[in-house]
């Protein structure tokens, strides 16, 4: 397995850091859509976990001699484009977006973590490991589908749109970040390994949809 | 000095808790107005402190047998009315709003803390004690005024509007929360003590304006 270049590592940590910062902002904004104070506070508290994770990644980037702002900058445009094209209309769309979109991103980061060395591997695994939000989202979405079965079709369609947007923005990133793309392509050793990586991500997405009670 | 009733204590802790939850939301939203990633992350990290404070207050309310959501509910409308009537147009207005508006609220909470017993007194003092944000806001606003002196008149006017709105919403709360109002009116012992309390709040506001380089 090829060791990642420093450039690829900075690219990766910058991407995860910006992912955490954006997740904080999105969850904090989505909390305003919550139907009651209890859920509003719960989501706000979960958002705070993301910003603490961001802090760890920014500190690590600084430690390896990189400027966190510079490392994150390449991802600002694509994440903005993603959010602009997938503005949730209500609480359930917001939860589905966070769960499905962040789910795919987390699975990708998990695969990438396997390609880097310690202590960065563990750091990336740590920041994607918070499952509290996942359980919260699944419970809310399943309850909503049970209360109104028409919700299933609407949210299934929404989730399909979301994941399509995630993939198209990811393709944009792949075209722009050569070091990162090289890391993925060379690390597995051959084409089959790379295909297997993407198959794992796709399968995890299908499993998540099923767990939500949504059609894939 | 009259000891506060449980009702007054729940009113007060509910108000401070909702203040923290709202401060989190507002700072998280304002972070999007930041001119660069560094400031955006800094404000987001400060927002996370507010939600941690919220958690302490909610836990204490639960401990004394109150439902945090019920205790916070009376303040949702006035805080919303305040935010609706004072929507910042840009980063500097957002910072001024947070610093001036939260400043007055914090001074009021500080005065109220004196009227309650331990451990609630220390809890209220703890959650208003974070000065990181204050220094950040003062530095940013002073630098902006130095860079463009016209900013002074604009932000001075804005701050006057803000504090007027704070006072009018506070008056609405005073009319609605009898236990809390009774605590303030009876605690000082006489009318002069109550007037002194409000004079301290007004003086602190003037000092804050001067520190910002704004006209009062």
UniProtKB/TrEMBL annotation, chains A, B:
Pfam families recorded: MiaE_2
Segments forming a coiled coil: none
Annotated Ferritin-like domain residues: 7-186
Protein name (database record): tRNA-(MS[2]IO[6]A)-hydroxylase (MiaE)-like
